[in-house]
Design a protein that fits this description.
With 424 residues, the chain is an alpha+beta fold. It is built from 14 helices and 13 strands.
Length: 424
């Protein structure tokens, strides 16, 4: 191969040899291989730096093989503990796909019907304001509607009860912060925001109810059923529900941060009155079925890979996967002409069809003070999970930008590893 010095010295004769070169076969153009490390690290590190996020973890699956795992920064900034592949993070609303799979497993086993009325199963006495009777529409809400966020609650129109644990404890006569059943009793005394099934409105509360449905049907605690019946058969053994208070962390759990270290009013009784937002500004235990799980990035991609319908042994049967991916019945998530929206919510996942052959991208994000998460199942066999121990509080730097960044990274990779890191 001609070195740069020789090329420069012979450049004047270059034109003279071109005709001869044309008589030979044109050499193949060599393009540089782009490995996952180069593509993903570039995007993630830029994201972390811009937002000053202490730490995070990424796991990527290609065709059911774990092909890339990378941890960034600190799991605990003060103790200088780096993030590791097995570091547990609060996954916030990425808990919803876990709950949805548990519900669908009960449907698959014919222990539950998607069109069953939820509050016929969750029999709790309502707490009524001003002796008003319960909203009669509550009795019509189905399991399917809870899974697809069409139950009738709209937090933008009224409020999100999962973040009112002190008020609800007072209204229900229970110890603050209110637990899941106290929240349900309180909401049974509140009017719905719209008729069930008529439109989509994201509802943490709806998934809180689903957690109690699981408990009533199985006669077991929600966490125990999910861990033993869903996660353990998938090979996931360290996922568990988190705890709110500092000092109650699980072994290997990350520490959570706020960009401005802003304090919150403590929802737990007693001193101190002001606490760090992630450690007392909300009641994580009451959020179990909609936002309470801890997981590593590897745990989450293993969970998502188990739902791959092309797997040798998919965790759910094809008919159950079809139920999970089915769009909500009309009129929810429909355009004025009656056609389906470009994106919509299925059972536990946001969905966006890709092409006309039935393929789609499925994903779920999560956000709590101190936490930002994303789990993606892409139409081409790619899966990734990204977990951070700080969420962005800047409107100009939204956490949602991570979705596009990771798609860019995945699209840039030209050479995927053949090894399966799950075995490690």
């Amino acid at each position: 191969m001609m070195n740069r010095r020789k090329f420069l010295l012979t450049g004047a004769t270059g034109l003279a040899v071109l005709p001869a070169l044309r008589l030979r076969a044109a050499p193949a153009i060599q393009t540089a291989k782009v490995l996952p490390a180069a593509a993903f690290d570039r995007e993630v590190e830029a994201f972390l730096t811009a937002r000053k996020i202490p730490g995070g973890a990424l796991a990527v699956v290609k065709d059911r093989r774990l092909v890339y795992v990378k941890c960034y920064g600190w799991a605990d900034r003060e103790k200088k503990i780096p993030a590791r592949p097995d570091t547990l993070f609060r996954i916030a609303s990425v808990s919803k796909p876990v709950t949805a799979v548990a519900v669908l497993k009960l449907v698959e086993e014919k222990k539950l019907d998607l069109d069953a009325r939820a509050f016929d199963l969750v029999r709790l006495p309502p707490v009524l304001d001003d002796a008003k009777p319960p909203d009669p529409r509550l009795a019509r809400i189905t399991i399917r509607q809870l899974l697809q966020h069409t139950g009738g609650w709209d937090r933008d129109q009224s409020f999100d009860p999962m973040f009112r644990p002190v008020l609800i404890a007072g209204k229900t006569g229970t110890t603050a912060p209110a637990g899941a059943e106290a929240v349900i009793r309180y909401m049974l005394g509140q009017p719905l925001d719209f008729d069930p099934g008529t439109r989509y409105a994201y509802s943490n509360f709806g998934y809180c109810v689903l957690g109690r449905v699981i408990e009533r049907v199985t006669r077991r605690p929600y966490e125990a059923f999910v861990r033993e019946t869903i996660l353990t058969p998938m090979g996931i053994r360290r996922m568990r529900l988190g705890a709110t208070l500092d000092g109650q962390q699980a072994q290997g759990e990350a520490r959570y941060y706020m960009t401005d270290n802003s304090p919150a009013k403590n929802v737990f009784p007693g001193p101190p009155e002001q606490v760090p937002w992630p450690y007392g500004g909300f009641h994580l235990e009451a959020m179990d079925a909609h936002g309470g799980w801890l997981a590593s990035a590897v745990d989450l991609v293993r969970f998502a890979a188990a739902l791959d319908g092309q797997a040798r042994r998919p965790f759910l049967k094809p008919a159950t996967l079809k139920l999970m991916h089915a769009p909500p019945p009309p009129p929810a998530s429909r355009k004025p002409d009656g056609t389906l929206n470009d994106t919509y919510y299925v059972c536990g996942w946001s969905a966006r069809p890709v092409g006309d052959d039935g393929r789609a991208n499925y994903w779920h994000s999560g956000s709590l003070p101190g936490t930002a998460t994303l789990l993606v199942r892409r139409h081409d066999g790619l899966i990734w999970a990204m977990l951070f121990n700080q969420r962005s509080e800047h409107k100009q730097l939204p956490d949602s930008a991570m979705d596009a960044a990771l798609h860019r990274a995945a699209n840039a990779v030209t050479d995927w590893p053949k090894e399966d890191l799950f075995a490690r």
